C-alpha cells in the first residue's frame, strides 16, 4: 500500500481520487518489467485520448525519487520499479530489529475471539478425522494471538448422550477396572461394541442404558464417578497428541457443561414464540429460510446437539463477550451451523452474525483408509508416530552423525503431519500421503525446516558478522526480499480468511526463493561488503521461516 499511495499522490491526476488510482494497480508479469503496474484505460475519459498516449505522456512527466527508481510506459500501462536498495534496507532492518515479533501487530487489541476446535468425543478414538480441526484451530489460535487478539481456545467435548449410559451398563456387566485402566479408550470402545452385540439379542438393554444416562444427568454419584473417569481416561489419551501438536485449550467445557443452561434458552424460545410442537417434539421452524426445522427437544424431552450449541453460544457471549466465535468443524455439519445460527438470529441476538463456521474438507489416507470406516479407525497418534519413524530413517540416511537424532526426528515428523494437513485450502478434501508429507524436496514442512537449518548452518559457519549495508541487488536477492516483505500482510489475510494454508504456501515460497539465491550465489567467499549483506539476508530469512512455522505449531530444529 505504501508504494501505491506514494505513486498515486505524486501523480495527482485531476478528476480521479487518489484512492481510486490506488485501487487500479496491478502486478506486472515479471519484476524485470516493474513492481507495480498502472493500467491507463480508465483515464481515457479524463484525458480524451488513447491509453497508449496517456501512458507515454504520464511516463515522460513522472519524476523518480528515493522510493521509485524507474517509470516506463508499455502498451497503455505505466510500470513502476521501486528503488530496490531502499526497499531492501528498510525490509531487512525491520526484520532484524523485530525478530520473533516480525509480522505481529496489535490490530486485535481489546477484542476476544473464541475458537471452538478439536472438540473430541469422550470414549471415542482420536482419529485422523480430527487432524484438521485440531491443527487448523491451533494455527488460528496462534495467529489471532500474534495479531494482538485475546484468543480463547475451547474444546467443546462430546460428553453427552445415551452412549454414556450404554458404556456404564457395558462396564458394569462386561468390564473391570484393571482392563479399562490398561486399555483406556481402546478398552472403552471394545465395551461399547460388546454392548451393541448384546443389545441386538436383548432389546431390554437399551432401556437399562437409558436409565443409566438419566442417572448421570440427575447427578447420581456412582454413575457420575464412572462417567468422569471415562472422561479423564480419554483426555489422558489425547494429551500426548496435543503436546506433540503443541495445541492448548483455555476451556474444556463440553456439551454436558450446558445441562443446566438449556432450560432458560428453551424458555426464551417459547416466550419469543419460536417453539413449535411437531409429533411431540419441540422444533424451530426454518422452512421460510429453506432449511429443515431445528430440533430443540425430542418427544421424550431430551435435548439435542443443537440445543446444547444454542446454550453454549449464549454462555460464551455472556462469559467472554467475544468479537467473533469460530467453530472449526467439518463441512458435514454445514446445515447444523446454519440452522442454529439462524435460530439465534430469530431470537434477535445481534451478535448472531459474529458466529462463524470455519468448515474444512475430509481427510483420508493414501491407502484408502477413511477416518470413519467401521473397524478401520486410523488413530491420529499412529499417524504421527509413523511420520516420526520415517523421519528418523531419513535422517539416518542423510546425516547419520546428527546429534539429538530422536528429538529432531520428532520435530520433523510432527512438522510433516501439521504442514501436510494445512497444505491446501481448508475446504478441500485431503488425501494424506506419508511420502509426500516427508519429501524433503517437495512443498512440505521438512523442506521449510531444512531451509531454516541451512540458513542456520551458513550463519554458524560465518560467526559474528559485521555491519551490513545494501548498495546493489541481484534479481535473486531482490525476489527473496520482496517475499520476506509480504509476511505481515500474509498473516493478516490468513487471519481474515481463517486460512492457515496461506502461511504454509508462503513459507514454501520463501524457502524456494532462499534456495535459489543460495545455489546461484556465494555467501562466505565474497568481499566483506557482499558477505555481510548476504548474511543479513540469510538471518532475516531464518527469522521469517521460524515465525511462520511457529504460527502453525511447527518447530525449527537448528540442525538437520
Ligand atoms: N464433537 C463434535 C464432533 O465430533 C464436534 C463439536 C464441534 N463444536 C460444536 N460446538 N458443535 O462432531
Regions with little confidence, pLDDT below 50 for 5+ residues: none
What structural class do helix, strand and pairing data support? alpha/beta
What's the CATH topology label of the domain at 112-271 and 301-365? Rossmann fold
Counting H and I runs of at least 4 residues, what is the number of helices? 21
Strand content: 5-15%
Q: Averaged pLDDT, please?
A: 95
CATH superfamily (homologous) name of the domain at 112-271 and 301-365: HUPs
In this entry the ligands are: arginine
Instruction: Give a short account of the largest sheet.
Output: 4 strands, parallel
The CATH architecture category of the domain at 112-271 and 301-365 equals: 3-Layer(aba) Sandwich
The order of strands across the largest sheet is 5-4-9-10
Based on DSSP secondary structure assignment, what is the total number of beta strands? 12
- Which term fits the overall shape? globular
CATH class placement of the domain at 112-271 and 301-365: Alpha Beta
User: Radius of gyration from the CA trace?
Assistant: 29 Å
